[in-house]
Design a protein that fits this description.
The protein has 125 residues and is α+β, with helices and mostly antiparallel strands. The protein has a single domain, classed as Lipocalin (Beta Barrel), CATH 2.40.128. It is built from 2 helices and 8 strands, in the order H-H-E-E-E-E-E-E-E-E. The protein has an 8-stranded antiparallel β-barrel.
């Protein structure tokens, strides 16, 4: 009987939604980026890889290479607004539009980047 109860508990826990990711706060984002930072974008199984140099003056520049071989340049401005990293890139699918991202902690030196419910990928440093 105890075994059945244990199995039922495991199944019930497995059916629950995953624990909500812990988003970085505005202070954590500011502490991480305010003096500049070199970010590693994507990686294995992400579909792309690249780098992004975040400058303390509010600009950023880098590029990503898709698994298809296409290279996409990244350049523009960034700032922290509340608990979000907001960016306006000059080119790409979001060209000229401000996008504010939530950075959910994925490890001690990495985050899953979210725009609303859309997973934009992995950043690490």
């Amino acid at each position: 009987m105890k075994r059945i109860a244990a199995i039922a508990l495991i199944l019930a826990i497995g059916a629950l939604p995953a624990v909500a990711a812990t988003a970085m706060t505005g202070k954590e984002l500011t502490d991480l980026l305010s003096n500049g930072k070199e970010l590693i974008l994507g990686g294995p199984k992400e579909g792309y890889s690249g780098t992004l140099s975040i400058s303390k003056n509010g600009t950023a520049k880098g590029q990503v290479k898709l698994d298809s071989g296409d290279v996409i340049p990244i350049e523009g401005k960034w700032h922290i607004a509340g608990n979000k990293f907001c960016r306006t890139w000059l080119a790409g699918r979001d060209a000229g539009k401000q996008v504010c991202e939530t950075w959910n902690k994925a490890g001690p030196n990495s985050v899953r980047v979210m725009s609303g419910k859309r997973d934009l990928g992995l950043n690490s440093w």
